[in-house]
Every structure is written in structure tokens, then in C-alpha cells.
What we know:
Blueprint: E1 5-13, H1 18-28, E2 32-41, E3 44-52, H2 60-74, E4 76-82, H3 83-89
Antiparallel strand pairs: 1-3, 1-4, 2-3
Amino acid sequence: MSSSRFVITVIGIDRVGIVAGITAVMAKHNVNIVDISQTIMQDLFTMIMLAEVKDATFDLSAFQNSMTEEGRRLGVEVKVQHEDAFTCMHRI
């Protein structure tokens, strides 16, 4: 893995427990929040995080699956993208 940083986006209808649920999964996988922005627009919850992991044996696929599963449980959409992929996709 060339970089250990990830962009995580969370979007959905606001409800109690979204941040707690998402960050619990991150803690379970030893993923640290580097930067975070969260906004509620009327009843729409949006959050974007830059996160990192220092474990060379980190399983990105397992982490993505866990985050997707937690998102389903919470009723929100969660995307986890490796920073390199995110940077390439959004380069002008």
C-alpha cells in the first residue's frame, strides 16, 4: 500500500448514533481520524473524514465491508476510498 490514508464520506438522514457507530468501526480496525468535517443541512447528515492507519497488514477490503455494513445498519451511505484513488478521481 503506497499510502495509509483514506477518505471516508457518510451521507444520510440525520439520526442519533451515526458518529458513534461509524467511529466505533474505525476504532475496531485501528483507523485514526486525521481531519473531520460534519454538517447537518435541514435533516441531511453529511460527514467527510481523512483517516489513516499505520498497520502495514491493514485489510482495506475488510474495513470497507465493515463500514458499508454499519452504514446499512444506521441507514446512511458510507464510502471509503484510498486517498490515492480519491486524489486521482478529483484531479482537475
